[in-house]
Amino acid sequence: GAVVSQHPSWVICKSGTSVKIECRSLDFQATTMFWYRQFPKQSLMLMATSNEGSKATYEQGVEKDKFLINHASLTLSTLTVTSAHPEDSSFYICSARVLGGTDRINEQFFGPGTRLTVL
Amino acid sequence: SQQGEEDPQALSIQEGENATMNCSYKTSINNLQWYRQNSGRGLVHLILIRSNEREKHSGRLRVTLDTSKKSSSLLITASRAADTASYFCATDLGITALIFGKGTTLSVSS
């Protein structure tokens, strides 16, 4: 159980285009999902916290107009990279927090990541 | 911002040797977790240790937590080539996302 999927697993796009990445919790409901970015040989940096039915909360330095997050349901959050530039090329990873359950309330489950390459 | 800091940044050992990675953090935590990531791949959850626990085992993994020193260590015993990966500690403050350290890159040669 507790599987998180991401789609696509990799994408190559031209500079200036927009790319949408989906994050789904497959067998549980997640009120909160998180988006991370990881540059080569670096750690995961939190970009934003996505709550179902409300606006996302962005970390300092992350442009909310560039990285649009929509958490439309308890099982789906999307990240859209708008007007992508080569410097946006990165590995984007989402995670979902399990809803409810004392023992599991702080557990996050991670998606496999999406490799974005902007030419 | 990053909460955890691992050391060493890189570690090279021979198969069969033990590998020890350390993680230090700055604020009080609910729990601390260790993850593995193979190059270019997703995260694999290894072990979670709660703030009221001092040691935890899982197979060849042993994790310790010292909340007074705000530090944790991950020991991999009898390492194998397949253990080659990056290892991250992540702290859970209970209210927000997991915050990851910079990671240790482990290379195990046969």
- Main sheet record of chain B: 6 strands, mixed
Structural class call of chain A reads mainly beta
* Oligomeric state: heterodimer
Q: How large is the radius of gyration of chain B? A: 13 Å
Order of helices and strands of chain A: EEEEEEEEEEE
Structural class of chain B: mainly beta
Helix content of chain B: under 10%
Strand % of chain B is over 45%
Given the structure, what is the number of helices of chain A? 0
Mean model confidence by pLDDT of chain B: 92
Low-confidence stretches of chain B: none
Distance between the termini of chain A: 37 Å
The overall strand count of chain B is: 11
Biggest chain pair interface: A-B, 21 and 22 residues
Please, could you describe this protein's structure?
The complex is a heterodimer of chains A (119) and B (110). In chain A, β4 and β5 form a beta hairpin. In chain A, the strands form 2 sheets. In chain A, strands 2, 4, 5, 6, 9, 10 and 11 form a 7-stranded mixed β-sheet that branches. Chain A has a 4-stranded antiparallel β-sheet with strand order 1-3-8-7, with no helix packed on it. By secondary structure, chain A is an all-beta fold. The radius of gyration of chain B is 13 Å and the shape is globular. Chain B has no helices and 11 strands. With 110 residues, chain B is an all-beta fold. At the A-B interface, β5, β9 and β10 of A face β5 and β10 of B.
What's the gist of this structure?
Chain A is mainly beta and 119 residues long.
Salient structural properties:
heterodimer, A: mainly beta, 7-stranded mixed beta sheet, 11 strands, 0% helix, 51% strand, B: 110 residues, mainly beta, 6-stranded mixed beta sheet
